[in-house]
């Protein structure tokens, strides 16, 4: 009975039609009056005459039953003001010492980078942050179908590349390694493809590297080169290596590069229009020294001159006129440049999937702890920070980097997965499901492709899955020789 009802869901024309994106949740761009706010106190501190403290409004194994938890694409929600005082963690001490040493505040980008990836105490470095026991959930953790569909995309690109004998399959920010595992399992029947793969995981966190090693069922063995060892995934026999950055992945082989929820973790600068012109939002130590607060730079910073002007160049007049705040992610532009040049010289393509907007992002930086939005400055290092991805900037950066690449999309995640065949995969998986697995499958399916609350949800209201299907966007950058990648021809 359930299968019949799921079949009708899967054949629902809503999933097949290409729908326009819903309005992007721009976040109150109007400038607030100059008031103060910090993460742990509601008492206005005395202001430095030069800095304005800002008002912050502001294989067929079915995954075990899917837990309903927050994905990171949710619209920024001003959190409750936290009045809990925190004892200084190693990261807080480190941030304060940078600010004191500099003799002034640091940029939001520097704050974000330290908080997420400081080698000793960054958020990602020493813990597993995913799933119901962590802070947020991502698509590969929702359902095996996600990684399997990315496998379909990779195989299609490999076919378009002329089935090369050796390929670098690179994943940027692989989290627990779930996507890569499902990709390999899902494509195992195409032996020529799996045999061609050299897997490269670009991951900064030693803790997550270990988890990825175990998820991919890796072993260390003697390599054909004398006196050296290599790591091999027993799932497919492919070699696996880890790198801190894409630049460290060896060149010379065509590359398939996957970046799922990687760009959103790259540090953003935030700029705000003030009466004196565009200034940069900065992070300073609060007056009472116990926490941090946002301040506005007294004049344009060097980042304002460099990055804001660059982003301005790519924007339309209409876009610019309505903006009082702009986020710019120079690391995203640099990474795109590296990807485009790699693909230009080695061949292949990249698939970028993330939540974002096909144009300038205004003010999206958000913090999530234990599946709830919290203040960005509250207890740094204990919550994930992420920002919406500016896909238009990625397109411009790739176009600038090389004439040998083409950029496709963005299209919605729902469109991407739909055209890659997720409905057929769901139907196939249902053939071997018990009732509990079928329910888990259905929940996962709707979370991946739904565009809001799942319309035919029959479970408890409080567990209604919220879809990631339209908030997440997919963009491909490919070598011109490969033609238009699947499914961007649609
Ligand atoms: C939001 S998680 C996404 C994980 C995974 N792609 C998924 O969808 O489940 C971001 C991943 O990127 C890694 N990461 C973040 N910043 C990085 C950086 N600058 N260099 C390398 N890895 C980074 C994190 O450790 C983590 O594995």
Number of strands: 19
| CA-atom Rg in angstroms | 23 Å
Identify the bound ligands.
S-adenosylmethionine
- Identify the overall geometry: globular
**Uncertain regions spanning at least 5 consecutive residues:** 1-51, 55-62, 64-68, 75-85
Enzyme class: transferase
GO biological process, one term: methylation
Catalytic activity: L-arginyl-[protein] + 2 S-adenosyl-L-methionine = N(omega),N(omega)'-dimethyl-L-arginyl-[protein] + 2 S-adenosyl-L-homocysteine + 2 H(+)
InterPro entries: NDUFAF7, NDUFAF7_sf, SAM-dependent_MTases_sf
Provide a descriptive summary of the structure in words.
The two termini are 34 Å apart. The longest helix has 17 residues, at 144-160. This protein has 16 helices and 19 strands. It is globular. With 490 residues, the chain is an alpha/beta fold. Helix 1 runs antiparallel to helix 15 (422-430) and helix 15 (422-430) packs antiparallel against helix 16 (435-449). Strands 3, 4, 7, 8, 13, 17, 18 and 19 form an eight-stranded mixed beta sheet that branches. Strands 1, 2, 9, 10, 11 and 12 form a six-stranded antiparallel beta sheet that branches. The protein has helices at 2-10, 13-16, 90-102, 108-117, 139-142, 144-160, 178-186, 191-196, 206-215, 302-313, 317-321, 330-346, 391-401, 413-420, 422-430, 435-449; strands at residues 52-53, 106-107, 167-172, 197-202, 218-222, 229-233, 239-243, 255-260, 269-274, 277-285, 292-296, 325-328, 348-357, 366-369, 372-374, 384-386, 389-390, 405-412, 472-479. Strand 14 and strand 15 form a beta hairpin. The chain has a domain at 2-40 and 58-78 and 131-141 and 262-269 and 300-482. The relative contact order is 0.17. S-adenosylmethionine binds at residues 116-117, 124, 130, 138, 140-141, 173-175, 202-205, 208, 260-262, 265. One of its GO terms (molecular function) is protein-arginine omega-N symmetric methyltransferase activity. It is an enzyme of class 2 (transferase). Belongs to the NDUFAF7 family.
């Amino acid at each position: 009975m359930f299968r019949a009802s799921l079949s009708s869901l899967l054949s629902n024309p809503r999933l097949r039609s290409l729908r326009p994106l819903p309005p992007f949740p721009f976040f109150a761009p109007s400038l607030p009056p100059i008031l103060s706010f910090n993460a742990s106190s509601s008492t206005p501190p005395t202001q430095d005459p030069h800095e304005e403290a800002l008002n912050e409004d502001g294989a067929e194994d079915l995954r075990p039953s899917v837990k309903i938890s927050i994905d990171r694409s949710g619209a920024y929600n001003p959190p409750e003001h936290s009045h809990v005082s925190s004892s200084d963690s190693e990261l807080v001490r480190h941030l304060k010492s940078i600010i004191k040493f500099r003799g002034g505040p640091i940029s939001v980008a520097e704050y974000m980078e330290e908080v997420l990836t400081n080698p000793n105490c960054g958020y990602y470095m020493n813990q597993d942050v995913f799933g119901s026991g962590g802070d947020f959930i991502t698509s590969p953790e929702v359902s095996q179908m996600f990684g399997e569909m990315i496998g379909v995309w990779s195989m299609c690109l490999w076919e378009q590349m002329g089935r090369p004998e050796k390929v670098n399959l690179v994943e940027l920010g692989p989290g627990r390694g779930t996507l890569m595992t499902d990709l390999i399992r899902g494509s195992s029947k195409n032996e020529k493809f799996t045999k061609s793969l050299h897997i490269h995981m670009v991951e900064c966190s030693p803790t997550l590297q270990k988890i990825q090693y175990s998820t991919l069922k890796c072993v260390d063995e003697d390599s054909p080169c004398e006196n050296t060892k290599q790591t091999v995934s027993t799932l497919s026999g492919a070699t696996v290596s880890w790198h801190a950055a894409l630049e460290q992945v060896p060149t010379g082989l065509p590359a398939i590069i996957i970046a799922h929820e990687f760009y959103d973790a790259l540090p953003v600068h935030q700029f705000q229009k003030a009466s004196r012109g565009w200034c940069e939002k900065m992070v300073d130590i609060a007056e009472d020294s116990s926490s941090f607060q946002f301040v506005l730079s007294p004049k344009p910073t060097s980042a304002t001159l460099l990055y804001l002007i660059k982003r301005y160049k790519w924007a339309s007049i209409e876009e610019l006129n309505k903006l009082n705040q702009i986020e710019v992610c120079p690391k995203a532009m640099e990474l795109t440049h590296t990807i485009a040049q790699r693909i230009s010289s080695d061949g292949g393509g990249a698939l970028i999937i993330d939540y974002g907007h096909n144009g300038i992002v205004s003010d999206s930086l958000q913090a999530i702890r234990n599946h709830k939005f919290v203040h960005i400055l509250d207890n740094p290092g204990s919550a994930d920070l992420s920002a919406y991805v500016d896909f238009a900037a990625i397109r411009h950066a790739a176009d600038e980097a090389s004439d040998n690449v083409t950029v496709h999309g963005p299209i919605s995640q729902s469109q991407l997965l739909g055209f890659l065949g997720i409905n057929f995969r769901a139907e196939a998986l249902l053939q071997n499901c018990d009732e509990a697995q079928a329910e888990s499958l259905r929940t996962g399916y709707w979370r991946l492709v739904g565009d809001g609350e799942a319309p035919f949800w029959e479970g408890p209201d409080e567990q209604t899955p919220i879809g990631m299907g339209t908030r997440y966007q997919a963009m491909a950058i490919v070598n011109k020789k490969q033609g238009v990648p699947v499914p961007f021809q649609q």
